Amino acid sequence: MSRLICLCFFIPAIIFAQTWQELSPFPHYERDDAVAFAIGKNGYIVTGNHNGFSESNRLWVYHSETNTWSEGSAFPGEPRQYASTFTNGPFAYLIGGISQNNLPLKDVYRYDSQSDSWEELQSFPGVAHWSSATVSLPQAGYLFGGTNQTSTLKQTWRYVFETETWEVLDSLPTIGKRDMFAFNRGNQIFIGGGFSINPFTFYNEMLEYDTDNGLYQTVESYPNEGIGYGTASNFQQGGLVVGGYRIDGSFSNEVCILMDSIGSLKMRFHH
């Protein structure tokens, strides 16, 4: 069983030098619950609520080498927020979300960064939903949890890039949750945090999903209080979890590095 160790640093950190650099600001309206993904050296932002949806389908591209932004081809689907995304090579996949009319969606679009174009694919075969956690591996994307109007979901799905097909997998072995964070270490996927709507509860539990055998197991919990909307990415031998939202309505500026079996150091880092 993998053992994740949380290194949540205060400034200054001893083991990992932590510095922040302000970059070129986003050139458009502020976005709530947009989709963000990276392809190559570029970052992309599309959809989301900007106190309305009239401009949310505009796609913006951040060029890391020049610290500049440009506008890409607009998303052709219905305006939305809380969509999910995978990436594979030059492609990004945008799945579902909740529409500007507060209806759950299940359509799927593929963005080709080389031709700057969108294509609608076969719809997601499960229930329409929003706010799932996703992880992209070389052969497939994995989708966990989410919500609709009445309940948070325990679903697990795999999307095979080569065949463009969906496969339903064993459900989460816990209560259904939305807005979890997720990252991978090789073929092992770690899913944590999130919250349920019935009951309305935030969680700090973490699961490990083995994509080779399709089994879940519980690993060491996220060391702080339950959190939703955290942002995670792969980092060295584990994951980096940044920020989030707490049940008391406060926002977190915590940065946690979740490492695999390196000892028992526990620190905190706030910025």
Tell me the number of helical segments per DSSP (H or I, 4 or more residues long): 0
Number of strands: 23
- The rounded distance between the terminal residues' Cα atoms is 32 Å
Structural class: mainly beta
Named at the architecture level, the CATH assignment of the largest domain is 6 Propeller
Mean pLDDT: 89
Relative strand content: 35-45%
Structural domains: how many:
2
Largest sheet: 5 strands, antiparallel
The percentage helix is: under 10%
Explain briefly what this protein structure is.
The chain is mainly β and 271 residues long.
Secondary-structure topology with pairs:
Elements: E1 4-8, E2 35-39, E3 42-46, E4 60-63, E5 68-71, E6 80-81, E7 84-88, E8 91-99, E9 104-112, E10 117-121, E11 133-136, E12 140-144, E13 156-160, E14 165-168, E15 181-185, E16 188-192, E17 195-197, E18 200-202, E19 206-210, E20 215-219, E21 231-235, E22 238-245, E23 251-260
What does this structure look like?
The structure is a single chain. With 271 residues, the protein is mainly beta. It folds into 2 domains: 1-23 and 132-271, Kelch-type beta propeller (Neuraminidase); 25-66 and 74-130, no CATH class. Helices cover 0% and strands 44% of the residues. The chain has no helices and 23 strands. The strands form 6 sheets. Strands 6, 7, 8, 9 and 10 form a 5-stranded antiparallel β-sheet that branches. A 4-stranded antiparallel β-sheet has the order 1-23-22-21, with no helix packed on it. It has a 4-stranded antiparallel β-sheet with strand order 2-3-4-5, with no helix packed on it. The radius of gyration is 18 Å and the shape is globular.
